[in-house]
Amino acid sequence: MAEAAEALSRPFPGPPRKKFAVPPVKIAFGHQERDVTASIRAPVYAFPIPLWRLNLSTYITHSCVTKDRECVYKPSRRGGPRIRKKSRPLSDYQDLATALPPKAEEIPQHGLMVEDYIGPGAGLKALADVFQDSDTIYDHLFQSPVHDVPLNIHVPVARTYGNDDRAILNAYYIWIHPYFPILPPPEQVPVPDQPLVLGENQNDGFQEPLSAVALAISAILALIPCPLDSNPSGEESIRWRRTYSQFLAKASLESIENENERPESSIDPSKALDDSDEEMFREKFHPRVPLELESIIALDLLSVYEYAQRGNLKKMRARAGAALVSAMSLFLHTRNDVEDEYSEARRRPPTFEVFGSSYTARYPTILADPEAWPTFVRSQQAILAATQFVIDFNKVRKAGTDMSRIYNRMQELERLLEPLIVQSESWSSNYSLVQPVDPSEAVLANALRCMSRIKLNSARIKVHRYCAFFDIAVFTSKHCDLASLPKTEVDSFEPQRLQSCFPRQMHTAIHNQPPPEFPFSRHESSRICLKSALNIAANFDAMPYPNPTGQFCDTPIYLGHRSTFITPRTMPSFACCAMQCSYALLMVKDRTESIYPRSSGNNSILVDNLRDRLQQGLLSVLATLENYATAFEALGDQIRDKVDLPFDFCA
After folding, report:
1. pTM
2. Domain ranges of the chain
């Protein structure tokens, strides 16, 4: 080892060489014993040196000398020979060439100014973009195919008109006025309806109306599905319409409270009590409706809203009662011979039309049919009297007292109702189902006539119902003054199909005769109930539909171009009438099936004709309720279940 160190320190003989005359060679040595015959890989920056030219006894590293160890060869760890990349087949490049668009022509480079040559890349040829886009080429060659999944994201939307009072008033005459004429007649035919779309995820850019009556009208209009809603019957769409409508209804009530608020009440209450009521100074919603009537109109609209949409009879009575008190404080129920621009508006609120001697004001005027409104008032009074008769009858029957007074009252009501119904059957009904509202209010007159027939015939069913059917329960839950099935029978309602759809005790009781003191026989009362029920169903079909186009049409109009819903009627006030009609039809159908069963096969043409008329009548009631259910949840879905359940079992 000493000789090796001495040889290492001795300079090499010979002439001096230039720096880097011989390329450097990197040789790795280590202290472990390795196979010196292994191949040596020179670094990329040196030339390989043959093993036979390398004298291992001469090249000894300084590290080995200082540590007094034997120098042995250690192979490099920088990796072995590089793997040659496998060339792509020629077919891949041919596929790429066919997929890429044809090579664009080179852009001629001429006409450049001298100053254009000083920019970066000046004078270079411009290549087509397809060859410069490496991402496109790489994705085409190496990306696995991904099938696009269509996104079906439905955003619930609601109908709105913003704070545009003119658009809200125009929509009122289209959707509400034919069924609830609480405003004066329009000055012209309404223009086509143009609602706005309010999405559930829309957070800005929305403005609500200011007046209470505009908010109340908007609350009802918001329940009508928007024409652009792709799934108006979906749960999310119904929930969003319900939420937005309730927001507007609450805002209407808050607006009424704010208009009645006195600033002095919070600062100096004694001064607020001494001062007289101040007049309101703001723009009127309708040019022929005074400001003091707007809160009354709003409360009347919200009363129907609570009944038809929310099913809250307690709040319905509260809203109607508040409107009545406000109207009587303005003496709207008394006669006023002074005629001005607001006279018709004062006669329109329909809250007071059932009163007797206390109501002395003149009826509203309908140019197309001046007798339509008085006839409607008489039908309201008739059904009120029939409802009171049912209440008194049930009290006396449960108490077991003398029924003679009830029998006399039954005859009195029949003498009152029969001529009214006969007269109603002679009314002309040559009106289009989708005629737009005009200043003559012909559509309104037709609707009032239909509602009058419905109420008169419903009142007659109330009078004869017990004598004809003994008030046997049919529906699964109570509605109006109709009895409901006990819970035990509701739970086992489906298996109890004998010859028809009703429980066994119905058939045993149906053949019983009423007490001899009754002024009418079971057969006579049943015939009256059947005729009245068929009249109600026919007038449901004759009720006009809203016309949002402003043009004359022959058939009902759909909500939108792609919608499957016919424009819904609004402001229903005869849900009880629909239930009375369904009850009578179902009872007669049960009696028909028990006496003339289908299994006998000996039914006459009269029996088949009666079955068809009964089924058509039930379908008319169901179609009417479904049309209302498009906008009003409480009236539609709940009542439809009560009618549809027994109808399915009787089919």
Report:
1. 0.73
2. 1-13+21-80, 154-262+280-365, 369-651
